[in-house]
Structures are given as structure tokens and as C-alpha cells.
Amino acid sequence: MEKSLKDPTIFIHGQESSSQGNKGVFFRGLFPEMIIPDFVGDVSTRMSKLNEILLDKRGIIMIGSSLGGLMASLYAFQNQDRMKKLILLAPAINLPDFSPYLSERLTLHVYIFHGKNDEIIPLKPIQAIAEKVFPDLTFTLLDDDHRLSKTFTSIDWPRLIAPYSSNSTFQ
């Protein structure tokens, strides 16, 4: 069942994925107006494209998976005033590109979903970094792997992404 989004919402896929990956296809079916671009190249090239896409947007709800989670985090730190919500799926915030932000704090509420059995992005370092830089954090540990293939579709995305009011919460 399609849902309507009232805020600009973007999904950023991981390094080895595309807009046609499982998550992109899922989101496109649920939220047809969601921005789901393809990214290629290094982080700098991908960030340039992301900045172009979001140039005139405010109240952004951003979902990033793996390397896309790193990108979403970088964007949020650089454009906090333009963001409404940050949702990260096994974010690669342990990579060197994120190092400049390890001493900063994001005031935005951040949701992280991470698999207990993730063999690509290690849980403990991610959780430690997240708790340090995202003081307003909801960290959900899932019985899944890096792709979150068993649990991804069971997340209540309509409630998480398209809240009924700007003050609604999701736990």
C-alpha cells in the first residue's frame, strides 16, 4: 500500500548496491515519491551528487544503508539545519571519511538499525561511535546480517518515515 510523504525523503544505497537493489525497490513501492538515486565512485564523488540532488530541499528525511549511512551521516553533520530525520542501516561510520566528526555531536534524532550478525560493518565500534556522536539516538539491534534481509521489511517504515506530526516519536 502506497503512503504519501510530506517531507523530501531520500534513500542512499550502499557501495555494492543501486537504486534497483532490494531496499530501493521496496521503498519505491511503498513511497513512490521517495528520491532514490544511483551513486557510483568514491565518497567525495557520491557526496557531490548528493549535495546537487538536495540543493533546494529542507525538512529532509534521509535513510542511508552501509556506505549510504556514512554519506547520510556526513550530509547531516554538514547540513543539520536542513534535516528533519536521519535513519541509518548498518552505517559505515567507522570509515576514515567520518573521522572529522568524531569530536562533534549531532542534535538531530538518529535511528540506527544494525544486525547482530553483521560481518561487514562491525556492531561494537559502530554502536560506540553512534552513542558518542548521536546523543539523541534510538539504536535497534536486529537478529540479522549486514543486509538486514530478514528484518528490513518488518520495520514499520510508514510510521518511521511519514510521521503524523513533527513531534511524533518512533520507538
Account of the 3D structure:
- This protein is 28% helix and 17% strand.
- The chain starts with 8 loop residues before the first strand and ends in a 10-residue tail after the last helix.
- Strands 1-2-3-4-5 form a five-stranded parallel β-sheet, covered by helices on one side.
- It has helices at 22-30, 43-53, 67-78, 123-133, 157-161, and strands at residues 9-12, 60-65, 83-89, 110-115, 137-142.
- By secondary structure, the protein is α/β, with parallel strands linked by helices.
Chain-wise SSE layout:
Layout: E1 9-12, H1 22-30, H2 43-53, E2 60-65, H3 67-78, E3 83-89, E4 110-115, H4 123-133, E5 137-142, H5 157-161
Parallel strand pairs: 1-2, 2-3, 3-4, 4-5
Helix pairs in contact: 2-3
Summarize the structure.
28% of the residues lie in helices and 17% in strands. The chain has 171 residues and is α/β, with parallel strands linked by helices. The chain has a five-stranded parallel beta sheet with strand order 1-2-3-4-5, covered by helices on one side.
Q: Keyphrases for this structure?
A:
five-stranded parallel β-sheet; single chain; alpha/beta; 171 residues; 17% strand; disordered C terminus; 5 strands; 5 helices; Rossmann fold; globular
- The CATH C-level name is Alpha Beta
Mean pLDDT: 92
Helix content: 25-40%
User: CATH superfamily membership, which one?
Assistant: Alpha/Beta hydrolase fold, catalytic domain
Count of DSSP-assigned helices: 5
In the sheet with the most strands, the strands line up as: 1-2-3-4-5
- As a percent range, the share of strand residues is 15-25%
Structural class: alpha/beta
Number of domains: 1
Oligomer: single chain
Distance between the termini: 22 Å
Annotated CATH architecture = 3-Layer(aba) Sandwich
Rg over alpha carbons: 15 Å
Total DSSP E strands: 5
Low-confidence runs of at least 5 consecutive residues: 164-171
